[in-house]
Design brief:
Largest sheet: 5 strands, mixed
CATH topology: Ubiquitin-like (UB roll)
Strand order of the largest sheet: 1-6-7-2-3
Order of helices and strands: EHHEEHEEEEEE
Shape: globular
Strand content: 25-35%
Number of strands: 9
CATH class: Alpha Beta
Oligomer: single chain
Structural class: alpha+beta
Radius of gyration: 16 Å
Length: 149
């Protein structure tokens, strides 16, 4: 994985005419995405990429969401995690109503640039249920059991 050191500089949206601009089957393009130094996020056909949020201190998974170019740009420019709400079809900042914002410390980018990991400091519980993480249950023998925080 490549660590994007300077998360608050540059605008992905300025480089892309549309989210599908970097979708290609060209081997040279794939090689550039995998080993190059240029950040060229590879959005899916709906203009989204997966974003996994982990705690910067513990590396525990806090949540998984989707980002479009607008959310990625807002996150990089503000330092606060923004996502694309698929149900509402719009941009949202995590914690905009609860105050439980996610302060982005660094962004990790996977090998083909179609998923990212946000290392964050959370201002409070990440899950809308009040749990520290949205992953507060474990599957055991076809039954969900609570994980102790």
């Amino acid at each position: 994985m490549v660590i994007v050191q300077q998360i608050l500089r540059g605008s992905v949206a300025d480089k892309l005419e549309s989210p599908t601009d970097v979708m290609t089957t060209d081997p040279s393009q794939s090689k550039m995405l995998e080993t190059g130094h240029e950040f060229l996020p590879k959005f899916d056909d709906k203009g989204l990429l997966s974003a996994v949020v982990i705690d910067d201190t513990t590396s525990n998974v806090l949540m998984v969401a989707f980002m479009d170019a607008e959310a990625l740009t807002a996150t990089r420019s503000s330092g606060l995690a923004h996502f694309h709400s698929r149900s509402r079809g719009k941009l949202w900042q995590k914690g905009e109503t609860s105050g439980n914002v996610l302060r982005v410390q660094s962004i990790l980018v996977d090998c083909d640039q179609d998923a990212i990991v946000l290392r964050c400091k959370a201002a409070g519980p990440t899950c809308h249920t009040g749990a520290t993480s949205c992953f507060y249950r474990v599957l055991e023998n076809d039954r969900l059991e609570s994980v102790v925080d």
